[in-house]
Amino acid sequence: MPYLFNELSTYTQIDCDVINFAAMRKMDMAMDRDEIAGLGASLRQIDQKLTSAKGDGVKRVWYQGGEPYFDLFIDLREDNIEWFQLTLRGKSLSWNQTGWQTGITNEGMVNDITFYPASKLIKTDNCPDFTFIELAYSILKTRAGDAIVDKILVLFKPE
Q1: pLDDT in tens, the chain (159 residues)
Q2: CB 15, CB 126: distance < 8 Å
Q3: What is the pLDDT of residue 83?
Q4: Which are the contacts of 33, defined by CB distance < 8 A and separation ≥ 6?
Q5: What is the Cα–Cα distance from 70 to 57, expressed in whole angstroms?
Q6: What is the DSSP letter of 55?
Q7: What pLDDT, on the 0 to 100 scale, is given for residue 121?
Q8: pTM (2 d.p.)
Q9: Which among 106, 109, 59 has a CA at the least distance from the CA of 84?
Q10: Which letter does DSSP use for residue 114 in this model?
Q11: What's the Rg (C-alpha) of the chain?
Q12: Which of 115, 156, 107 is nearest to 133 (CA)?
């Protein structure tokens, strides 16, 4: 991997590779550079008036991608990231001060009676999906120069 996540070091790479390989085959998430660049270019910041304010001085920023179920949410306090979440094609990557988390969303499950189009339920992965983390990083890297995305990219680098 081109970068390391200190919080994720408790998992052996072999165990996670086996789990992630199976997940990738099932989801067919392999993408070429053009598709990654297209996804990055499709992210558009949603008007601040349409996002729900959390209060407590936290500002929520929302980028919506050009395909269904592709969103990036960021909570900022005094211009510092407190939390972010990227969802794409039924997968989720989240970060807060306690660490990284990957999971699957309910967005593609049409028989889910709890589904409401404006909400997502996320089931946390037992083992971090390193392949999805790398994919998310690659997509966000195409947006380098965007002040908020640049703050997210810094989170991917080891201290």
Answers
A1: 434 344 555 555 555 655 555 555 444 457 899 999 999 999 999 987 766 666 788 999 999 999 988 999 999 999 999 999 999 999 999 999 999 999 998 776 666 555 555 566 778 888 889 999 999 999 999 999 999 999 999 999 866
A2: no
A3: 95
A4: none
A5: 26
A6: B
A7: 77
A8: 0.77
A9: 59
A10: T
A11: 16
A12: 156
Q: Whats the size of the chain, residue-wise?
A: 159
Residue type, 13: Q
127 DSSP assignment:
S
- Here the tokens at position 82 are 């407190």
Q: 125 CB contacts (<8 Å, ≥6 apart)?
A: 101, 102, 103, 104
C-alpha 44/C-alpha 97 separation (Å) is 25
Q: Which of 60, 65, 59 is nearest to 135 (CA)?
A: 65
- Which tokens sit at 7? 């919080």
Cβ count near 159 (within 10 Å) = 4
